[in-house]
Every structure is written in structure tokens, then in C-alpha cells.
Design a protein that fits this description.
alpha+beta, DNA polymerase, domain 1, 4-stranded antiparallel beta sheet, two-stranded antiparallel sheet, 6 strands
Length: about 300
């Protein structure tokens, strides 16, 4: 009598899960280096979409003529055959239990994760700041080629904010990637605005920096869901008012401690009142701009 497992075609058994992925399980024979022609090692192949991994069952098929490749099991009524098939049954159950465990926890299902679950090898989970550091290191290597120095500075500041938030909120030096969810994002927004006293637009920029790291995690398969889903990263329009004559006069009367700042003040005033356009100041020498300072002497000075 064939075992209960044999009623399922192990080669074609596929379970569609998480919409776009398929799962396959196959028992097959593999010739070892020091085994006879009639003796083969039994291996188990786990396939998730296009990724697959092989696991040794540590059992042998002593008579390959009695191996049913379509069923992935031995045929016959001998006691040894029943024991072997029962063992393969138990392996199948463990594989499905591992699959169910990952799906129930909303973890990314991979063939390697199932193998680690079966063999007891624990995969070290990725952490938020660890990935953030990796992302920033990549940007650092590309400064001057793809990225500007200010871009690196911006992401470095964003990393420091994220580090301080995790310490403030969770009392930890880092946090597993799987803890990234909508609650984390909303709490981080609150922290930036309340504790760090960041304005709305600055907060949105720091969250956008974090989102780029999140997208990296999604592409690498370290995250199953986007924690920013449903979160609106919308900035507010800033209406800049024109300076009044009194305000311009206050700037004109301000004396700075260095010539550089005084020249910057003069260029700003020239551009503002229309005496010099922003474009006409490019390439000018300090002496050339200072020679026309008399043009704004009409500003009242205190």
C-alpha cells in the first residue's frame, strides 16, 4: 500500500502563496562518491519561485530499481521500505510546517530560510541602522561621481536622527528590519517634530531619506511589506514674503566681523534691489562689487 504522502505527486506539487510565488518539493536520488551502482543518496529539493536549495535526507535508497521518481518514494512492502517512506513523510511535514511558520509571521519566504529552519541554522536578521550604514557607505564611495558631498551629509544627518530615535523610543542601539512598520514611521515623525523640533518639511525630508533605505530592503527581500504604505510624505508650500525697506535697511546697516560676510551682504542687497542680477555677480572679484557700494547708500542707516 502506498503511504499517504505518495498520494501527492511530489514533483508537481506546488502551492501558490503570497500571490506571486510558488513552492515546490522534490525527493530525488543522487549518486555519492563512495556508493555502489544500486545505492543512492536521497536528497530533498525545496524551490521557492526560481530559487532552490538542496538538503540531504541522510538516508539511502538501496535498490534504485524500486525508486518511484514520479512519487518520490520507494515501492514495496518490506519493513525497511515502510520505515524509509515514513521518514520522508516526516520530512515533508517539517517542510510544510516551516513554510507555514514563515507565512504566518509575514516573513519573506525563501528556500534558504526553509532550509535554515529545518537544519536549525538561524539566519541573522538585518537591522535598520546596519542597512542605513551600508547605504551611506555606498553613497560615500560615489561622492564626486554620482552624488554630491551635500547628499552624503544629508544622509549622515538622517542616520544620526534615526539612531537617536531608536534609542529614545526602544532603548536599543539598533532594531531588526522586521520591526519597520507604519507605527515606527508615525512615531518617528512625532519624534522629529516634538523632540528634535524639526519643521514639517524638514521632517518629511528625513523620512524620505529613510524611505530610500526601506526601498533597498524591499528590493533585497529583507522586508515583506512597505511600512510607508498609506503614509503621505507631502511637504507644505512655503510662501516667502518680500523684505520690507526697513528690513533691507537693517541688513545694510549690519556690520559683520569678516570681510567675506560683509561682501556676501552687499551682493545680496545688490541682487535684491535689482542693481545687479544674480547672474551678473558670477565671476566678479571682491573689488569689482565693493566699488559700487555707493549705489545702496540711499538706504537709511541707524
Amino acid at each position: 500500500m502506498p503511504c499517504a504522502r505518495c498520494k501527492i505527486n511530489f514533483i508537481t506539487v506546488k502551492i501558490v502563496f503570497m500571490v506571486s510565488k510558488t513552492f515546490g518539493l522534490l525527493f530525488y536520488l543522487k549518486k555519492g562518491k563512495s556508493v555502489s551502482e544500486l545505492k543512492r543518496l536521497i536528497y530533498m529539493r525545496v524551490t521557492v519561485s526560481s530559487e532552490r536549495t538542496e538538503i540531504s535526507t541522510k538516508r539511502y535508497c538501496h535498490d534504485i530499481e524500486k525508486w518511484n521518481a514520479s512519487l518520490g518514494s520507494m515501492t514495496g512492502n518490506k519493513e525497511s521500505t515502510k520505515i524509509l517512506n515514513a521518514y520522508l513523510d516526516s520530512l515533508q511535514t517539517k517542510v510544510y510546517d516551516a513554510l507555514r511558520f514563515l507565512v504566518d509571521r509575514d516573513e519573506l519566504v525563501t528556500a534558504e530560510k526553509i532550509k535554515n529552519k529545518l537544519t536549525g541554522n538561524r539566519e541573522r536578521p538585518k537591522k535598520i541602522l546596519e542597512v542605513f550604514h551600508m547605504h551611506n557607505d555606498q553613497i560615500k564611495e560615489l561622492v564626486g561621481n554620482t552624488y554630491a558631498p551635500l547628499t552624503l551629509k544629508r544622509y549622515t544627518t538622517a542616520l544620526e536622527h534615526a539612531k537617536k530615535f531608536i534609542l529614545w523610543k526602544y532603548k536599543l542601539s539598533d532594531l531588526e528590519i522586521t520591526r519597520l512598520n507604519y507605527e515606527f514611521i508615525s512615531e518617528y515623525e512625532f519624534y522629529l517634530k516634538s523632540v528634535r523640533k524639526c519643521g514639517h518639511n524638514s521632517t518629511m525630508k528625513y523620512l524620505s531619506n529613510l524611505k530610500k533605505v526601506v526601498l533597498l530592503c524591499l528590493k533585497k527581500g529583507w522586508l515583506q511589506k512597505d511600512p510607508f504604505y498609506g503614509f503621505h510624505l507631502a511637504t507644505k508650500e512655503v510662501i516667502r514674503e518680500i523684505l520690507s525697506q526697513d528690513e533691507l535697511a537693517a541688513i545694510a546697516a549690519k556690520k559683520f566681523s569678516t570681510d567675506r560676510l560683509n561682501i556676501t551682504r552687499d551682493i545680496f542687497l545688490f541682487c535684491h534691489v535689482g542693481v545687479l542680477s544674480a547672474r551678473s555677480t558670477v565671476g566678479k572679484q571682491p573689488g569689482e562689487t565693493r566699488s559700487t557700494l555707493h549705489l545702496i547708500q540711499w538706504y537709511p542707516r541707524s
